[in-house]
Design brief:
Layout lengths: L1 H16 L1 H25 L4 H12 L2 H12 L2 H19 L1 H30 L11 E9 L5 E4 L1 E2 L1 H7 L5 E14 L6 E8 L13 E2 L15 E4 L1 H8 L8 E4 L2 E8 L15 E4 H9 L12 E7 L5 H22 L12 E5 L11 H34 L1 H9 L4 H30 L1 H7 L12 H28 L2 H5 L12 H33 L9 E7 L7 H16 L4 E6 L13 E2 L11 E7 L3 H5 L3 E4 L13 E5 H7 L9 E4 L7 E7 L12 E7 L10 E6 L7 H9 L7 E6 L1 H43 L1 H9 L4 H30 L15 H27 L3 H6 L2
Parallel strand pairs: 5-10, 7-9, 16-21, 18-20
Antiparallel strand pairs: 1-2, 1-11, 1-12, 3-11, 4-5, 4-11, 6-9, 7-10, 8-9, 13-22, 13-23, 14-22, 15-19, 17-20, 18-21, 19-20
């Protein structure tokens, strides 16, 4: 039995992989038997010619005998497939315009899906490269009740909180890390690059092996000071050091002169979503250099992200129960050091072992949500493309009825006919898929750069997961486009197909074709509604007044980088920088700033006489600056005055409040002259001297965010050498001049960085820009595909109805009726699609509400614009076929039959 199975398997494999040899053997064997039969006939007295005729008659058709032999090998299907592919290729090559249109349509649909899959996969689903057992690795979150009653979610924690959680029993290890842009190098060679500071167990999460040296150990990451060692990223090693031997050399990272001990392997990116790290540094080394030994007990410095590997035998629910207990105990430890933390029970703490990908966690940003929506939009584009192609193939199948009937009459089975049609659609889809991959690889590089870090390898052709998805999408497209024509071909009767003559070859109604025509505008409505909603949101956010100017303002910050200055020396440096900035040509104003919009903000306890629990009324953010602050920012003073040089140290404490803060704290009262206190209700009263327009400094959408302003001279916090500078024109044009002039004031290794304020604000608008750009692009693409599909089908219908139209014109039908009939049918199809798509859009649109800005998701104006525009495009697409129908010459039409 086993021997027979083995022999059968060998035979099948030989038939599959040595087909040419077996074909030659088959020819030799048939030739041998034919010759033997001829010789037998000759020996019986027949002539040579008669013997050959009788021998061939005896054996029958040799082609059929060969087919029977091939079927016996079990690979006849392969021969049939090869013949179908060759036939389909010849047929499509003869119809170049049709083939090109179908391939381009499918390429667009498959290409945008391959691109968006790669983006969404990396944002939401894919684990970092070389991560061991990603299903057990979690990002840690802490849920608590904020002072305003809202649930607060934190993923940044203090170092002692990390140490409190590291001793748990549900997790094998708790890892702390953070990626920041820090200066690496010295002098003119210093550049700010992404630097990951991490606990020693960070590298144990991965199976990566250093290409040079080693990773740092737990002994080198021991509080308080750690060890001054550093591991280089592979790309940084190649670009900065040319791949030379670096082990044992020194490199200054931020404030620390470190020894290089290793180089990470190519493609290692760690767990950061902020680009590929250039350098890896022990947490304790960085924190001690930045904050001194006090960092290890400071619960108020929340800067670390935590990741933990759950033990396989522990359920996620059990791990979160222990995590909640760990956060509660850590909160008690913090409250023991600072009573301001309060009781952990009042915070209703809850720990969450969330997904490693931030885009799937409780703090998912709008970009990730928009990317997920755009991924769905890309699928709709593919469906529209498939509906278009399926309609074209169905129309073409009508003209092939006689051909398919003839093939059936000659013995082709229904399965063979269906297989031939499916092979053709698969060949078209495969060609479109290949073209779509090229489009996704080279044409959509900018799209990937929008969503993903620019230095993260996000290729398509080199990514196995994206290739697998593209293959699946191609196969799905082949089935969606070819199944209808294939089933139609399988249902044709031989006699019915062969009896079709010129009179019967007229217009043929098809419910499936009509449904596909309605489906395309319906899906287009959904995309266009989303496009208009995001475009209007983007327009609103761009016209939205933030309370300050963006384009002419830049930020210049001094990094002392370990240079030790006492309080007087730091104040003197700050004053020199401010004076230098004010004297740069083209600078209109400059100010020191304690807080920077969308970068660093400060909140303090606020106490107002007669108002209980001020914090429940909103989020109050402190700003501090020199007298030119409002002039520099372009913030308008609505009532009262701004602070000036008379508001100095030791003088009466004064403040300017925003209009919203004045409204919620002193409703229906004049805020000027009122007072409030900071930090404690026993401290001196701060008098309001002015009311300024509202600033947006943390969120563009939070209506409960308010600001107040203190003179820098009366600000009791630390004023780092950070300046806001207003210039004539655009800030980008002055970056080099400002940085160069201020660098001359910096002592030792200290350096200056400068960036336009727009670099901080624009990312907050990116989700609306993404949504508007991609919805418009994909919606426009879908509209074009749908219009082309309607044009193609209407053109084909008119061609099929040529004889009918000729007869009607010959009988006196006016041209307007012919023209109106074609346009009316197109209008009915488009209107049906608009109604269907509108109903779906009305149901789905509210799910977009959270991603829009000051825009209703069910705005009737939006739906009206989309419906009107789509109807106009549909009628325009049908206009040319309608005119062609109206110009049919009855004589030509009838003679053609």
């Amino acid at each position: 039995m086993f021997h027979r199975l083995t022999s059968e398997l060998k035979f099948r494999l030989r038939a599959l992989f040595r087909r040419r040899a077996m074909e030659s053997e088959l020819d030799d064997e048939l030739r041998f038997h034919l010759e033997r039969e001829v010789e037998k006939r000759v020996a019986a007295g027949a002539s040579r010619v008669e013997a050959e005729r009788l021998a061939r008659a005896h054996f029958g058709a040799l082609g059929g005998t060969k087919d029977d032999a091939r079927d016996a090998r079990g690979i006849g299907w392969l021969d049939n497939l090869a013949r179908d592919v060759r036939f389909a290729a010849r047929s499509l090559r003869l119809r170049k315009a049709f083939t090109l249109g179908v391939v381009l349509t499918l390429a667009l649909g498959i290409g945008v899906n391959a691109t968006m899959f790669g983006i969404v996969d990396r944002l939401l689903f894919r684990a970092p490269p070389t991560l061991r057992d990603p299903g057990t690795v979690h990002r840690l979150y802490r849920h608590s009740a904020g002072s305003d009653g809202e649930v607060r979610i934190d993923r940044n924690f203090a170092f002692p909180t990390y140490r409190d959680l590291a001793a748990g029993r549900s997790f094998q290890d708790v890892i702390a890390f953070q990626t920041r842009r820090l200066a690496v190098g010295e002098g003119d060679d210093a550049r700010e690059v992404p630097v990951t500071v991490a606990s020693a167990g960070y590298f144990d999460l991965f199976s990566a092996v250093p290409v040079r040296g080693r990773f740092f150990t737990r002994a080198e990451d021991t509080p308080p000071a750690g060890a001054p060692v550093v591991v280089l990223g592979y790309e940084f090693w190649q670009t900065r050091f040319g791949g030379a031997e670096v082990i044992g050399k020194t490199l200054r990272v931020d404030r620390t002169l470190c020894t290089i001990i290793g180089v990470a392997p190519r493609g290692f990116v760690g767990m950061t979503d902020q680009g590929v790290p250039a350098v890896y540094l022990p947490i304790t080394t960085y924190a001690h250099a930045l904050r001194g030994p006090r960092y290890s007990g400071n619960y108020n410095w929340s800067w670390l992200e935590l990741v933990a590997r759950r033990k396989p035998e522990v359920s996620r629910q059990a791990a979160e129960t222990e995590l909640t207990a760990g956060f509660t105990q850590s909160w008690r430890n913090a409250a023991a050091m600072d009573p301001g933390w309060g009781s952990p029970e009042a915070q209703h703490l809850r720990g969450e072992a969330g997904p490693l990908q931030i885009g799937r966690g409780p703090q998912a940003g709008p970009e990730a949500k928009v990317a997920a929506w755009i991924g769905g939009v890309a699928l709709i584009v593919l469906l529209i493309a498939c509906a278009n192609v399926a309609n074209l193939l169905l129309s073409r199948a009508v003209s092939r009825r006689a051909e398919l009937g003839m093939r059936a009459a000659l013995g082709a089975s229904r399965a063979r006919l269906v297989g031939q049609v499916l092979t053709e659609s698969l060949l078209l889809a495969a060609t479109g898929g290949a073209a779509g991959l090229a489009l996704a690889q080279w044409g959509a590089a900018g799209l990937r750069a929008w969503f993903l870090p620019a230095d993260l390898d996000a290729g398509v052709i080199t990514d196995g997961r994206t290739l697998l998805f593209t293959a699946a999408a191609t196969l799905a497209a082949a089935l969606l486009t070819g199944l209808g024509p294939a089933l139609q071909a399988g249902r044709r009767s031989v006699t019915g197909s062969l009896r079709i003559d010129a009179r019967q070859r007229g217009y043929e109604h098809s419910r499936l074709r009509t449904a596909l025509l309605v489906l395309q505008p319906a899906l287009s409505v959904i995309l266009l509604v989303g496009a208009v909603l995001f475009v209007r949101s983007l327009r609103h956010v761009r016209n939205f007044r933030l309370g300050y100017d963006i384009e002419p303002v830049l930020l210049a910050g001094g990094n002392l980088r370990g240079v030790r200055l006492d309080q007087a020396g730091q104040r003197e440096l700050t004053e020199r920088m401010l004076a230098a900035a004010q004297n740069i040509p083209g600078v209109r104003a400059a100010t020191l700033a304690a807080s920077i919009p969308f970068w660093s903000n400060e909140g303090r306890g606020l106490y107002v006489p007669g108002v209980d629990s001020v914090q429940k009324l909103g989020r109050f953010i402190l700003q501090a600056g020199t007298p030119d602050y409002f002039r520099t920012m372009g913030t308008r003073i609505l009532r009262g005055r701004a602070f000036d040089a008379t508001d100095r140290t030791g003088g009466p404490p004064v403040a300017v409040v925003s209009e919203g803060m004045a409204r919620v704290l002193w409703p229906k009262q004049e805020a000027i002259g009122r007072c409030f206190r900071l930090n404690s209700d026993t401290l001196p009263c701060i008098t309001v001297i002015g009311v300024a327009e509202e600033m947006r400094v943390r969120s563009l959408t939070d209506a409960r965010e308010f600001t107040y302003y203190l003179p820098a001279a009366q600000y009791d916090g630390s004023l780092d050498p950070v300046l806001l500078v207003r210039v004539d024109g655009k800030a980008d044009d002055y970056l080099a001049a400002v940085r160069g002039r201020l660098q001359a004031e910096m002592p030792g290794a200290a350096y200056v960085t400068a960036m336009p304020l727009s670099a901080l604000v624009d990312p907050r608008m990116r989700s609306w820009q993404f949504g508007a750009t991609l919805f418009v692009a994909f919606g426009g693409l879908a509209l074009v595909v749908a219009a082309v599909g309607l044009y193609s089908v209407m053109t084909y219908d008119v061609a099929q109805r040529t004889r009918e139209l000729g007869v009607r014109i010959a009988l006196g039908a006016p041209v307007s009726r012919i023209l109106g009939g074609v346009l009316a049918r197109a209008g009915r199809l488009v209107l049906s699609g608009i109604v269907l798509g509108g109903l779906i859009a009305v149901a789905v649109a509210p799910k977009l509400e959270s991603l829009l800005f000051q825009q209703s998701s069910r705005d009737p104006v939006v739906f009206g614009l989309v419906a009107g525009g789509l109807l106009v495009v549909g009628l325009a697409a049908a206009a040319a076929p309608a005119l062609r129908a109206a110009r049919v010459d009855p004589n030509v039409a009838l003679r053609a039959e």
